[in-house]
Amino acid sequence: MRNHLRLPPPAAPPLSGHLPFEDAPEVSDPIEVTSRYLTRGGRPWFPVSGEFHFSRYPAGQWEEELLKMKAGGITVVAAYVIWIHHEEIEGRIRFDGDRDLRHFAELCARHGLDFVPRIGPWCHAEVRNGGLPDWVLDLDCTPRTDDPVYLAPVRRWFAAIGDQLRGLDRAGGGPVVAVQIENELYDQPGHLLTLKRLAQSCGLSAPLWTATAWGGVQLPPDELLPLYGGYPETFWTEAHGGWPDTCRKHFFFTHQRDDEGIGADLRPTTVRGGEGPPTDRFPWATCELGGGMAHSYHRRPRVDAADVAALGLTKIGCGSVWQGYYMFHGGTNPRGKLTTLQESHATGYPNDLPVLTYDFQAPLGEYGQYRPSYHELRLQHLLLADLGHRIAPMASVLPQEQPAGQDDRTTLRWAVRCDADAGFLFVNNHQPHEPLPAHPDTSFRIDWPDGTELSLPSAPATVPPGASFCWPLRMPVAGARLDWATAQPVCRVENDGQTVLVLAAVDGIAPELALDASTVSSVSAPSGEITQVDGRVLVTGLAAGTDALVEIETADGGRVGLLVLDATTARSVYRGRAWDAQRLVLCREGVVFDDDEVRVHSTAGEPSFAVFPSPREPLSATGAQLRAEADGVFTRYRLAAQEPATEAPAPLAVRLTRPAGPVPAPAANAMGRASAPDDKAFESSAAEYRLDVPDALLDRPEGVLLRIDWTGDVARASTGGTLVADQFQAGQPWEIGLDRVDAGAARAHGITLRILPMHAEQDGVHLPSGADHREARVIGVTWSAVRAWPVRTG
Questions:
Q1: pLDDT tens digits for range 109-155
Q2: For the chain, which residues make up each domain, given as ranges?
Q3: Domain spanning 396-555, CATH class
Q4: Distance CA 86, CA 94 (A)
């Protein structure tokens, strides 16, 4: 099918200077906002932010996890500063240990990451009372309003945050680029302005002040930058309501920014603040694109890597100029001195969540484990790191033939982002739950306002089910012009005077390169066929891989390379400075270099990596030797000494010590949503297993991840009577990081696993397919390394 799009004339210059976002005058790269995109140092800026809650993760591992985020393409770290985590007891504000906000911000600065504190005071984040301490709710006041009795402790809280971040704003050379006020407050613009002024009076400073914008939010005019979101699934909707339409729409190309479904557990979708911020005054920026999804007791959705990747790519095609993911890194709720700290029916919330786990199925999990979604998103983030400044000012243009509605699964979903000279074609043929069909004989015709017509590819192709991709259109590459490629741009590399554009092939679509013949003098390829058609040089039949480097001499005497990687290899590409041996971390799923100048290719699951271009001097690492081998155009390095054994996941012995008893009758809250079993149910009815972990595993420096295959409804793990992990059954293995377990208690008492089966009459719970919940049983336990190989430099 021929898909046709006639591009409009270039848009008028964006509105600027209308928002009072003033950066520190001393900075060399001031941040500003136009009506269509953000700028930094006068250049269009496309930030990529990832949520990581420092108070839900061990402080001793923050730095390594931030490096993983940076290697995954995150440039901005966002974090709720959760009031109840810091001041559960009135007057005892804690910023020590895992609550050390200042240290976390300083680590961001050390590694060139921007920081966005989301200071509340109400934040939600699936936290007890939305983050408000119990003692605040006990005051004779109306929270989340301008009630003076409420604002008095808020002022003290903001002042404490201001003290922590003093000198870390932009004026002090710090990483704070934005501050979010409140969260999901959709109908009180006056209170939002009060909170902003209050925060400023307490010493908080940032070029950007933001607020969440879903639910038709009413914002104080030109004071807060609206940020949007969108999730592939929800835990907060009804158990058996099906896949929500508010999620379904995020897999279509549209210019509708709002998502009335986010926060709808606390604000019904029929209740909205208003029409929302005017889209002609603000760029499309996001802070909550679903990097995964939490599980509540009554609804436990499964989110796959393809869901996250398709949603993220579609938002870029829709016009996003700030990709913000919630969550990018999972965590674990801290233990309260007075109460548990999770959202629950006991605190009046519509949803019961696990006591401890806040894994969120995130790209980086609760224990730092890599998920396939991490590699999928990194591929997109590499594109934005290199070409985001070109994409950000480009308008999003939708074809005239649009899907007939959200139930239309036959019309191809696509869009173009372009300016007067070049553009990118976005296609999404994936959505959760309801697979989209293949689109055979597909081609595209793009008509530019200057009369240029692109018809691609040269022969119609089939868009496979599940595919989502971005192709370049009329892209300049160091003197050559790539009119199109049926492969996604990844990054550019300088190699001895030659600019190499790395591209990723799309599974099921043959790579094809089309160059403007007037811009090249010669083209050679290691495979395939080179022809000239209609003023273009076509390279077809190319075998994608690490040696598929197409060599080009440009008409002006320059040298250009086009390197097309196969889809699998492309998902293991990192950016890094290969010769900076001071900050090298060899991680099990990849190689993290704390810089972004040279591209690194890593093979997942091996202590090896490959570098292109080759470093001028051989690499070395403290505590190990690196052996170099040629690998096509790459140089591959492997650990040759002190390399940990590459054990396959090994089984551990576990024994049943008490069978499950009769399960209490199911309970529900006032909304009729199923409630999680309480502590008494575990004491009386749970099946109990003992897991003895060998000392060698408890002492492994790189960390160990237990993987428990189980059936049942709810599971808890404890050592010496202390709860260390919990999980709701959702058809996935239960993972526990051994470094969160007290080694002494585990040696003395083992790890106790308690599992409750689901009551036979419980019908108020949504489970994904494959979730076995009736019988409480541990099928088996294996282990593997979780964080890093014990080899690093410096």
A1: 998 999 999 999 999 999 999 999 999 999 999 999 999 999 999 99
A2: 2-389, 396-555, 573-639, 650-792
A3: mainly beta
A4: 5
Closest CA to 670 of 349, 229, 372: 349
The strand order across the sheet containing 487-495 reads: 487-495, 498-505, 559-565, 549-554, 520-524
CATH code reported for the domain at 650-792: 2.60.120
**Cβ(41)–Cβ(306) below 8 Å:** no
339: left (phi over 0), alpha (psi -120 to 50) or beta: beta
Residues 66 and 46: their CA atoms lie apart, in Å, by 19
DSSP string, 569-631: HHTTEEEE-TT-GGG-EEETTEEE-S--SEEEEE-TTSSEEEEESPPSS---BTTB-EEEEEE
Instruction: Give the Cα separation of 404 and 421 in Å (integer).
Output: 31
Instruction: Give per-residue pLDDT as tens, 360-379.
Output: 999 999 999 989 999 999 99
Class of the CATH domain delimited by 2-389:
alpha beta
Q: Which residues of the chain have pLDDT under 50?
A: 578-605, 607, 641-646, 788-794
The verdict on pTM exceeding 0.90 is: yes
Strand partners, 326: 290
Residue spans of beta strands (DSSP E) within 21-158: 31-33, 38-40, 43-45, 48-52, 76-80, 114-118
Q: Residue 239 burial (CB < 10 Å; 0-12/13-18/19+)?
A: middle
Q: How far apart are the first and last CA of the chain?
A: 57
Helices and strands (H and E) in the chain: how many = 13, 46
Tokens 């019309």 — which residue? 411
